[in-house]
Specification:
The complex is a heterodimer. Chain A is mainly α. Chain A has a domain of 144 residues. Chain A is built from 18 helices and no strands. In chain A, helix 7 runs antiparallel to helix 8. Chain B is of the alpha+beta class. In chain B, strands 14-13-12-15 form a 4-stranded mixed sheet, covered by helices on one side. Chain B has a 3-stranded antiparallel sheet with strand order 5-6-7, covered by helices on one side. In chain B, strand 8 and strand 9 form a beta hairpin. The N terminus of chain B is likely disordered. The chains are: A mainly alpha, B alpha+beta.
Chain lengths: 488, 351
């Protein structure tokens, strides 16, 4: 029992497994409270069965706690990955992990307990305590990632570095961590102001109002930048896992650092007199960040194709393509980043360009669908990328690796493509004639998401049964650190 | 030909002891071992191509089926059940002056006394208005639109603000297949079965013009919410919870919807009054002041103009046949530019 506990709460892979399992449980249960599940009456059954206390006026507040509960677990997973991949002092590594683990579990258990099962204010206090611990873990992570320590300088010229050996990839991680901690304050400050009359709201409900308070801007900025930073950190993690290096790496890392800083300055600017030009600064910051991700994609696809055809004298295009897609877990993460441009970035840019001519002529609730859809899609893509890396961590091989990897790509992309078409449906179909299309899109979404959840359930069930074996896979995973498994 | 992506033999033969080394090989299992040589690689890629071809055909077939099913024509004139609800659509309810809880966070607001229509304006009432107003020259028919005068909005030139100038604006479109009011060149009539349904496909101008014509006005947000909610903090006009028999909302399984074809349709005004229609039992869902359909059926235009400087949208309240139940909460807002019309938007007047 002690060994298993050690594995689950003291090893990188065990910690990640626990966090994924927690998210999976919350997703499975709370996913039944909306959409088609509500239509079919499942929502009412779940509420009665597990004794939820649902007050109509508190829906927005409940949802905000739900989002935070899931997001904190995702941030914990990323932190485990960062602390497992990068060199840092053992004491700091352990402290960060301890704080963030206690923090996200407190946040999730007591936050959801407070939001959905009556208002026990002790639960609310523990929820806030959890968030505070995560914030402090973030501060410690910044200390642990401090790039100006000569111990972390690098000599390998294949990686982005200064002449003196200053590791620019580490600077990128550090920048993402520091800006995440600062950006967290943009949610924490309005949050702490609730008791003084600031009322909870969902950003998508106030998007059209021409005048917003500083606190409202702060919340809107917070939610946008936190998701963007989770994406940036994950891109860096994937790059480290795949051992991103060479010329593309040398260009990408400075771009990522620059993009991350400018993007954050733009978002923070929304609560300053710079607000009128904040969006322009955000666009300027987003461009280098996305270019850096594109360079990772170009490098990784090129490497997969090159390595897979290294034994051939003159490989054809199809052979290179075959090699590129031969390992879905290594091809998938960057493919999902590319796919994100269809579901999220592309939609966002299109909306920005055609806002007054098209989208603002539609009712606000229609625009709300696009807004909520595009960030749900982004969150789901981030989750699939994490699951693909996790699949590799598990050491999946052969058919199982193919099945797992392609299932994640195929099912998530079906669901997300359907979401994207659903968001944009008013461009090509009227309200009166939309129902058959809506039905089929819903089937596609539900099929894709349900299959993903089934896949996740199978993996979780397998990991659970493995824990009952005295010489299960968990014994091997207890000792492996992610840094040892970085691609050569 | 086997339907496998790649040959996994190396990793399988490698067994548990070599798991780590295979995993660490960035080239993946297929090309990891040189002993399998070029021939193996070529055959693997050939299988890949064969599978890709079949997969592509399956995907194209699935996409074709999906598109055909998704683009199936919808019969917008499918027969609709006809029910007399017994609720008088010409009746007005008295709302006394006084304070009440406004919005999701229960701010205390005050309204003077006013009267509000018990139901939404029906299609028949609107057709009667059009006949009268066209005859006396208040409105005109031009092309496929009925046009009427509007006094214009204040304009501030703020980002995203629409300039709504004084002049003639579209009240209703006539050529839209979802329009239930028909014009034969001389008179306006209502499509059979829709006479006692709420008037839809009407712009904010058309709603504003109707109320003006009868010396009334569109309700302000505060008036609308007080009429819907009364003086307690309830989220729905009838009380604290919502079930399908309370209102017409998305997938509420009322007799007017068919989610496999045309989806939700409007219900006659006052339908949810506790009556049973051909075996379909409704709950009496009137508001504390006796108003019907203050939640669901159609969104209702609100009269407030430029509630925030530069905000040219008009608010709508009440949720509709096309929204989930959470949008039927009395404080939920929707908004759209005043020229917007939809089969899910109607109105009622106050005086």
């Amino acid at each position: 029992m002690k060994e298993r506990f050690q594995y689950l709460f003291n090893s990188t892979k065990g910690l990640i497994l626990v966090a994924i399992a927690m998210i999976a449980m919350v997703t499975a249960v709370w996913g039944m409270l909306s959409g088609p599940m509500a239509e079919m009456g499942v929502r009412d059954w779940v509420i009665k069965t597990i004794g939820m206390d649902i007050v109509q006026a508190e829906r927005e507040g409940r949802i905000i706690i739900l989002y935070h509960s899931i997001a904190m677990a995702v941030i914990a997973i990323e932190t485990y990955m960062v602390t497992g991949l990068l060199k840092m002092k053992e004491f700091l590594k352990m402290s960060v992990r301890l704080l963030i683990t206690v923090g996200y579990i407190l946040t999730m258990v007591f936050g959801m307990g407070f939001a959905y099962f009556g208002h026990n204010w002790a639960f609310h206090g523990l929820y806030i305590t959890g968030l505070s611990l995560i914030f402090f873990a973030g501060v410690l992570l910044c200390v642990a990632l401090w790039p100006w320590d000569k111990e972390y300088y690098i000599t390998d010229k294949d990686y982005a570095r200064t002449k003196s050996g200053f590791d620019l990839e580490r600077v990128a991680f550090f920048t993402a961590a520091v800006t995440t901690v600062i950006s967290a304050l943009f949610g924490a400050i309005p949050g702490s102001y609730y008791g003084h009359g600031f009322e909870t709201f969902l950003a998508e409900n106030v998007i059209r109002y021409p005048h917003k308070s500083v606190m409202e801007y702060s919340v809107i900025g917070h939610l946008h930048i936190m998701l963007a930073l989770i994406g940036i950190m994950l891109t860096l993690i994937i790059g480290r896992w795949l051992n991103f290096k060479g010329a593309w790496h040398k260009v990408a890392m400075p771009l990522m650092i620059l993009g991350c800083i400018v993007l954050n300055l733009g978002v923070w600017g929304v609560v300053t007199p710079l607000e009128p030009v904040a969006h322009m600064i955000i666009y300027v910051g987003a461009t280098p960040s996305m270019l850096a991700a594109l360079f990772l994609l170009i490098w990784s696809w090129g490497k997969l194709a090159k390595d897979g055809t290294a034994h051939l004298a003159k490989p054809t295009f199809l052979q290179k393509l075959g090699a590129m897609v031969s390992d879905p877990l290594k091809f998938g993460p960057t493919w999902q980043m590319l796919f994100m441009n269809f579901t999220t970035s592309g939609i966002g840019i299109f909306m920005a360009i055609r806002l007054d001519e098209v989208f603002r002529l539609w009712p606000a609730r229609e625009e709300r669908i696009e807004l909520t859809g595009h960030w749900h899609a982004l969150s789901a893509i981030i989750a699939t990328i994490i699951l693909m890396y996790y699949g590799d961590m598990l050491g999946l091989k052969g058919k199982v690796r193919q099945l797992y990897g392609w299932s994640i790509i195929f099912f998530s992309d079906i669901a997300l493509a359907a979401v994207t078409i659903f968001e944009m449906k008013r461009l090509f179909i009227t309200e009166s004639e939309q129902q058959p299309l809506v039905n089929n899109l819903m089937y596609a979404m539900d099929f894709g998401l349900a299959m993903l959840l089934v896949l996740l359930a199978v993996v979780m069930a397998w990991r659970l049964t493995d824990l009952f074996k005295s010489k299960g896979r968990w014994t091997e995973e207890s000792t492996h650190e992610l840094a040892e498994e970085v691609a050569k | 030909m086997k339907t496998r992506f790649i040959n996994f033999a190396p990793s399988l033969r490698g067994g548990r002891s070599s798991r780590r080394s295979n995993l660490l090989d960035p080239r993946g299992d297929c090309f990891a071992r040189s002993r399998y040589g070029e021939e193996h690689a070529y055959s693997t890629i050939a299988r890949n191509d064969g599978l890709n071809g079949r997969l592509l055909r399956v995907v194209i077939f699935a996409m074709t089926v999906f598109l055909l099913a998704s683009c199936a024509p919808v019969d917008l004139n499918a027969p609709i059940p006809s029910f007399d609800t017994g609720i008088d659509s010409t009746a007005w309810a008295q709302v006394p002056e006084g304070e009440f809880f406004y919005g999701q966070f229960n701010e205390v607001e005050f309204t003077p006394a006013f009267e509000i229509m018990v139901t939404d304006v029906t299609a028949q009432q609107y057709a009667d208005f059009l006949n009268a107003a066209v005859a006396d020259g208040t409105l005109k028919v031009e092309g496929d639109s009925v046009l009427g005068y509007y006094i214009g909005d204040p304009f501030h030139g703020i980002k995203h603000e629409l300039e709504i100038k004084e002049g003639d604006w579209q009240y209703i479109p006539l050529a839209d297949p979802s329009q239930r009011v028909r014009y034969d060149g001389t008179r306006f009539t209502v499509q059979e079965g829709y006479e006692n349904h709420p008037m839809t496909m009407v712009t904010w101008f058309g709603a504003w013009g109707y109320c003006q014509y009868y010396d009334a006005s569109l309700p302000s947000e505060i008036q609308w919410e007080k009429a819907a909610r009364g003086t307690d903090a309830r989220p729905f006009p009838w009380g604290w919870e919502i079930v399908r028999e309370n209102a017409n909302f998305y997938s509420s399984r009322d007799p007017f919807e068919d989610m496999s074809s045309f989806g939700s349709r409007t219900s006659p005004v006052g339908f949810y009054n506790g009556s049973t229609y051909n075996g379909y039992a409704t709950l009496d869902s009137k508001s504390p002041y006796g108003l019907y359909d203050m939640a669901g059926n159609v969104w209702q235009w609100i009269g407030d103009v430029q509630t925030m400087e530069g905000f040219s949208d008009r608010f709508m309240r009440g949720g509709s046949k096309d929204t989930y139940d959470m949008n039927l909460r009395v404080w939920t807002r929707n908004s759209a530019p005043p020229m917007y019309f939809s089969p899910g938007v109607g109105f009622r007047c106050v005086r």
